[in-house]
Specification:
single chain; alpha/beta; Urease, subunit C, domain 1; Translation Initiation Factor IF3; 2 domains; 5-stranded mixed sheet; 3-stranded parallel sheet; 19% helix; 27% strand
Length: 190
């Protein structure tokens, strides 16, 4: 199990314990830590988790570990904060084919699982979604499907000769919407 999986496993069943209750201690031993501050990765670190919170981080071997702690060997593993994909287009890419025809539940789930394996826990799909995304988004937020959590900007539109190409979206802007100016100057009102 990779470090991300171990961390999710260690924290997965955690709920806020009543005051004074014993909280399980988990230790990721001898990890390389990327802490998200911009500083260099720190090697040979122990991360101690008590209940559902990081209790402290210390150099490996500088502290004694509680006898009832769950110790996970992190040698050769790197632990880092979760990444967020802020501009994605879920479902369109399958292999080397980019097409609206690839927009299926199975393909989106495959992509969400791949994102999670790469350390991306949240994805925002921007303007290329179809009806299917809304049920998947709700299931994602409820924890009913695997992989990164889905956020969506909803439906997008394409321009036949522009970007994004309407063939990826499945919808396009009419050739000349009513009330639309041919250039921007006549649209300015003083």
């Amino acid at each position: 199990m990779g470090m991300a999986g171990c961390l999710l496993w260690a924290l997965g069943g955690c709920r806020q314990a009543p005051p004074g209750a014993h909280q399980q201690i988990s230790v990721f031993r001898d990890i390389t830590l990327v802490d998200g501050t911009g500083s260099a990765p720190r090697e040979h670190m122990d991360m101690v988790i008590q209940g559902d919170s990081i209790s402290y981080i210390i150099e490996t071997g500088k502290d004694t570990i509680a006898p009832d702690a769950i110790v996970l060997d992190g040698r050769g593993e790197t632990l880092m904060p979760e990444l967020i994909g802020c501009h994605e287009h879920l479902g369109l890419l399958k292999g080397t084919s980019m097409s609206a025809a690839n927009y299926t539940r199975e393909n989106i789930l495959r992509q969400l699982i791949k994102y999670e394996h790469y350390g991306v826990g949240e994805v925002l799909s921007l303007g290329s979604d179809h009806d299917l995304i809304f049920g998947l988004r709700d299931s994602s937020h409820a924890g009913l499907i695997p992989g990164a959590r889905i956020y969506s900007a909803g439906f997008g539109f394409g321009v036949p000769t522009g970007a994004p190409p309407s063939r990826y979206i499945g919808q396009s802007v009419p050739k000349k919407p009513s009330g639309m100016c041919n250039n921007w100057r006549p649209c300015i009102r003083t």
